[in-house]
Amino acid sequence: MDDVLFFHQGDPKKPRFQGDVKNGRMEGRGKFFFENGNVYEGEFLNNQFHGQGTITFPGSGKYEATWVFGKASDGKYTFGDGLGYQEKDWKYCTPEDRRYRTEREDGIRPAGHDQLTDSRGFRELPRGCYDVGDGYLNPVDNLVYQYRTSANGATKALRPAEDGELAWAKEKCRVGGDNAPVAEREDEVAAKTIQSRYKANRARKELDEVKKGAQSIQANYRGWKSRHTMKQKADAQKDEEEQAEAATLMQSRFRGNQERAAAAAEAAAELDSDEEPAEAPVDMDDPDLDAVRPASKMRLGLC
Asked: Which of 79, 99, 131 is the last residue before a domain boundary?
């Protein structure tokens, strides 16, 4: 068996089947989706409900039964609130007692607090729409929608109205008043959804652009800061090198001056050692000089 999904003429709103197929026929387990929104889930044989299966009625309840070639041989219906239907000894909403189940179990509400359904909550109806029990019927598109959970907004369509249901609803059912909000069709809701998604995508795109711009500014700032720091380091290193070079030059000049001063001192010392000693003054009365005085000078009486 193959697990496949069949759509009637490719339209998902038409009756369709999802489940086991044998020889091109529904056989095994699967789901059959009715056009009105009801769903059968269970066993199939030769394209028919056969075995254990349940039909679910959206917003209303479900019917569980044993099926034999498309017919229920034994089954039980359970309402959406969990109350099981009984053919015998049924006590709820009988001609003799019109109270709802919640009224029988929890008591009747005080005067002025109407209870129109078994549910204790009040069901909000759009303007001109009818309360048909499992939802509200919109006469514009003849579809039954889920009850609103708030005063605004549209809800999901449950099913198309049955033949004659609109006329019956106009005669028997509660209708939304002039002060109620206007009902929205599925196409309007889809259009609003698309528009909302477009706005959200546009906002996200703008936010992404802003983030990219901020990231670019941050990257530029980091680059500038890095370059500025590198320049500061280079300038500081250059200043240190220049200061070191100037100090080296000054030291070299100082050593040169010292060497020249030492050389000059040494040269002066050498000059002092090379001069002749000065002659001592001659004592003319020294008797030793007589031996060396020339006779001529003696004769002249110069000595």
From this structure: 79
